[in-house]
Amino acid sequence: MLEITNLHARLADGREILKGVDLTVKAGEVHAIMGPNGSGKSTLAGVLAGRPGYEVTAGSVAYEGRDLLALAPDERAREGLFLAFQYPVEIPGVNNMYFLRAALNAVRRQRGEAELDAGQFLKAARAKLKLLDIGEDLLQRPVNVGFSGGEKKRNEIFQMAMLEPKLAILDETDSGLDIDALRVVANGVNKLRSPERAAILITHYQRLLDYVVPDVVHVLSHGRIVRSGDKSLATELECRGYAFLDDAAAE
Amino acid sequence: MSDIRTGYIEAFQKQRAKSREAARRAAIARFGELGLPTRRAENWRFTNLRPLEQRLFPPAPAGTVPAATLPPLYRLGVPSHRFVLVNGRFAPALSDMGDLPLGVSLRPLAESAPALAPALDAPFLRESNPFLALNAAFFEDGFDLSMTDVVAGEQPSPPPELDRPIEILHLAAAANPVSLHTRNRLCIPPGRRCTIVETFAGSGPYWTNAVLEIAIGDGAALRHIVLQDEGKEAVHLGHRRIRLGAGARYDGFTLALGSQLSRQDTIVTIEGERAECLLNGAYLLRGSQEATIATLIDHAAPGSATREVFKGVVADRAHGVFQGKIVVRQAAQKTDAHQLNKNLLLGRQAVVDTKPELEIYADDVKCSHGAAIGDLDENALFYLRARGLTAAEARRMLIDAFAGEAIDLVADGAARSYLRRHLERWLAAREE
Amino acid sequence: MSSVEALDTIGPLGQGYKYGFVTAIDAETAPPGLDESTIRFISAKKREPDWLLDWRLQSFRAWQKMAQPEWAKLRIAPIDYQAATYYSAPKKKEGPKSLDEVDPELLKTYEKLGIPLGERAALAGVAVDAVFDSVSVATTFKAQLAELGIIFCSFGEAVQEHPELVRKYLGTVVPQGDNFFAALNSAVFSDGSFAYIPPGVRCPMELSTYFRINAAKTGQFERTLLIADKGAYVSYLEGCTAPQRDENQLHAAVVELVALEGAEIKYATVQNWYPGDAEGKGGIYNFVTKRGACRGAKAKISWTQVETGSAITWKYPSCILEGDDSVGEFYSVAITNNLQQADTGTKMIHIGKNTRSTIISKGISAGRGQNTYRGLVRVQPKAQGARNYTQCDSLLIGDRCGAHTVPYLEIRNPSARVEHEATTSKISEDQLFYCRQRGLSQEDALSLIVNGFCKEVLKELPMEFAVEAQKLLAVSLEGSVG
């Protein structure tokens, strides 16, 4: 589904953040990417989603056989790539439900499905909220405005559930969450797991991985994937910390 | 009013200034064309210029410097380099420049003027401001501070920061109406830093019409504190033109307390990237005083920041005006500019006019302004009285806090306590 | 739920100015030029009483002594007032008695504009007066309104049928010589709307006027007078469109509102005059004087405007708060794209005790548009306890436009509390990216964010108008992001 080859990317100020990332994600898989602060985890998520401010200097990303990097951010989204933001953006004056229905209908048009009218949407939204155990008041508030940190993350998961992406990338969605919110996040990802879909969990801690068991765990350090393994790699990192990676990266 | 215009032209014909004859003639001709501003002109709509329309203030003749002493009230109270002007002319007897550090020159403009001549006429030629023209026609003296550049590797290299603050006193004493036209210059070359404390004070029916040009080079910094405490009958017009280079910093503060009519006109042009302009002040008015603070901060280069806060206390029948404009030109992307004007209106006949203005031509900017006008907070007054303060004490405390908040923006400790002393003096006098 | 409904109506973009068609209609037009004979011609056409002719002539003489104002931040090409035509009316034998008698071509035009005339009006519950070029062509629902004692008719009809009311209030809020454009309007105004709500009556439906400029080289000078007697309530809507023409057309209207003790008037405008093309060719010059007077205690006047059209907008709907405890409100969205210029805002004049005013202004500049908020808050010496709150926000889209904020605060009473806040910022890259990551196109994302930015103002509009306004915002911003 996703094939990242020798990806190099830098910031507008010229600092190189990704220095040759290779990663293959197959349909049905859940990958976790771990790594210390500043290792390039969020940059990788940003580059995959097409966030402005990064420049890809080398390498390629194929998504379902297409050149992902050639697509505009909204084309990627309509093709089923979803990014749960580390810092969800506030949009004053725009009702959360209004926003999400516009997004969902854009995605549905792309898939050749009929658009949902207000009533159908509300029905679908209520069902998902219930499934995820999220309060309904979320719908009527302006997008992320005045939301607590936990509410913002729940809102991201709710949006993901509604949009049913093929590839979901969660950028540190677990940071700063209490255990209840963490369960909501995990629940959201687990409900989405299917042979046709894949997910990349970017995380600093292995806590989330107790609830969502990944197929593969990667360690990103200094802009490269330095280790890959199964769930036990996450446990090892938890015990030993990230310090030992520096030796690996220095090779 | 046309008599007033003619009056100044006639006074010009009688004067005996020796230098810059052609320039002076051009300047008085310009004044003749412009006349005094009327309130129909947008920039002058709030300023009541009646005291200048009603009588003529002939330029103070040379050689009439009265034997004055330095009032202790206007001593900064810390070691400084002191430069005193009396009735618009350098007063060596009262000045104490001390040992100026290497590469620093502080001298009367009368001495440096011949060398500076064409540049001195630039401000009035660029702008349609009759007071700049009148100043150019009449000025003979002022202060001129300049420093040499800090050149890397040069031996011996001067320290970037001046050792002591510079005190400039503009003193005036007049028995009959006179006008004092001074031209002053501050030139801070790249990499240098200094602190200037300027005071205007005096007695009698005089008109100060002072022009100050400030150029702050790349990476240089100036702290500029002004106390305007002119006499009760005085008119004070202060014109400041400030240019900032890349990474330069201007930190200015004006406390306006004196004169019947005053107007402080400041134009800051940000020419270099990542410059910083702090333009703050307070005006405290009572009786029938009229004061205008007019500022224009022109962002012509990217990445610069402006912080502007002016607070006004307007009592009795006084009239306070704030006209602040921030311009962000198309090239000035990433500008971050904020302006705030707050006023306390304390008299039944007191008047405040405020016009904070943003003019923005670049999109990647963060700009805001705010203005507020109101009386003292009733709840706060009641709270203080419930704790045993008299109504007068409570009011004084709140006014002190309101104005003091502005003075706290002054970074230099000595200058801050100097302004504080004058604030306390104003509050004490108000209660009499 | 209202905002969800509204989403459905944000149509696809890319349709441009859709009201740019011209109606082929037989019109009776005055020769171009302006002198006393033009005014006598207009007055005679409308069979006006002598007092009104005199009033016009006085205005004309005042206008002749005045100069076009230059203080606004606008670049205006010289206007040749002698080249314009000051009267153009669709030809008809007699004034229409009912909709059936209105020229079918005209009705088709209004249908294209989506104005609910006739049966559709009944469904929508809106009473409409439609002004085509210079004259009012149809007023719906007159009979039902009359049962409540409400007068809603064309201005010309009011002059004939209710001269005492017109004479009592005309020019009392906007005097003849108030400003250059108001004086011009007072001299040559052709038609417009008139409404009177009797004491204690709550007008049961929205009153609405649609203005349409059709004829070429024609100025439109309509005049609206609205009176809400003691304790009355009325909500009034106004919409404007014009054909796409290469030359600039002049529109100089005057609106006067009078709210007596305890009365409330809500006045909403969606102004979508032709803005000119992308190169700034053509478009309406919109110089409008709108002012309301709260003449009694506890009166309230609320202006809401969405200004998306016109090449130039010069407009300051104002409130004179004479009555104690009276309230003035101004809610505004102004968009300038391409080469449009807007200098708009309000004046709140606090005269009575405990008068309150609120100003919410949202300016959006795109392309090479220049957008100025200019507002005055004046608290007179006797306005004990006056309060004002002003919030002006500007949004910039692209680096060639301008956003300017010019508030005047003139405070002459120490018990006043006046606050003004303004911000200017660029459209947020983060917000755009967030929306696009959820699948919205760049343009949809932009219109969504802009609608959110304007929410505080749009929510003041009646539902049907809010929907139209949202669509207009989207259309107006077309092509503003690359």
What does this structure look like?
With 251 residues, chain A is of the alpha/beta class. Chain A is built from 8 helices and 12 strands. Chain A is globular, with a radius of gyration of 18 Å. The two termini of chain A are 30 Å apart. By secondary structure, chain B is an alpha/beta fold. Helix content of chain B is 24%, strand content 38%. Chain B contains 9 helices and 19 strands. In chain B, helix 1 packs antiparallel against helix 2 and helix 2 (21-34) runs antiparallel to helix 6 (130-138). With 482 residues, chain C is an alpha/beta fold. Chain C has helices at 2-9, 36-45, 50-64, 104-112, 118-124, 142-147, 155-161, 163-169, 180-188, 429-437, 442-453, 455-458, 463-476; strands at 27-29, 88-90, 126-132, 135-139, 151-154, 193-197, 206-212, 223-228, 233-241, 248-251, 254-259, 264-271, 283-294, 300-307, 312-315, 318-321, 327-336, 341-344, 347-350, 356-366, 370-379, 387-397, 402-411, 417-426. In chain C, strands 4-3-7-9-12-14-17-20-22-24 form a 10-stranded mixed sheet. The radius of gyration of chain C is 21 Å and the shape is globular. Residues 1-15 and 117-125 of chain C have low confidence and may be disordered. Classes of the chains: A alpha/beta (251), B alpha/beta (432), C alpha/beta (482). Chains in contact: A-C, B-C. The interface between A and C is large, with 41 and 31 residues. Strand 18 of chain B pairs antiparallel with strand 23 of chain C.
Task: Present the secondary structure layout.
The complex is a heterotrimer of chains A (251), B (432) and C (482).
Chain A (H helix, E strand, L loop, with lengths): L1 E10 L4 E10 L4 E5 L6 H9 L4 E10 L2 E2 L5 H6 L2 E4 L6 E5 H16 L6 H15 L9 E2 L5 H15 L3 E5 L7 H14 L5 E6 L12 E6 L2 E6 L1 H10 L4 H6 L1
Parallel strand pairs in A: 3-10, 3-11, 6-9, 9-10
Antiparallel strand pairs in A: 1-2, 1-4, 4-5, 7-8, 11-12
Helix pairs in contact in A: 5-6
Chain B lengths: L1 H13 L6 H14 L15 H5 L26 E6 L2 E2 L13 E5 H12 L1 H5 L3 H9 L4 E5 L18 E8 L4 E11 L4 E11 L2 E11 L4 E9 L5 E10 L4 E8 L4 E10 L5 E10 L4 E10 L5 E10 L4 E10 L7 E10 L5 E10 L5 E9 L3 H9 L4 H17 L5 H19 L1
Helix pairs in contact in B: 1-2, 2-6, 7-8, 8-9
Chain C lengths: L1 H8 L17 E3 L6 H10 L4 H15 L23 E3 L13 H9 L5 H7 L1 E7 L2 E5 L2 H6 L3 E4 H7 L1 H7 L10 H9 L4 E5 L8 E7 L10 E6 L4 E9 L6 E4 L2 E6 L4 E8 L11 E12 L5 E8 L4 E4 L2 E4 L5 E10 L4 E4 L2 E4 L5 E11 L3 E10 L7 E11 L4 E10 L5 E10 L2 H9 L4 H12 L1 H4 L4 H14 L6
Parallel strand pairs in C: 3-7, 6-8, 7-9, 8-11, 9-12, 10-13, 11-13, 12-14, 13-15, 13-16, 14-17, 15-18, 16-19, 17-20, 18-21, 19-21, 20-22, 21-23, 22-24
Antiparallel strand pairs in C: 1-2, 3-4, 5-6
Helix pairs in contact in C: 1-13, 2-3, 3-9, 7-8, 10-11
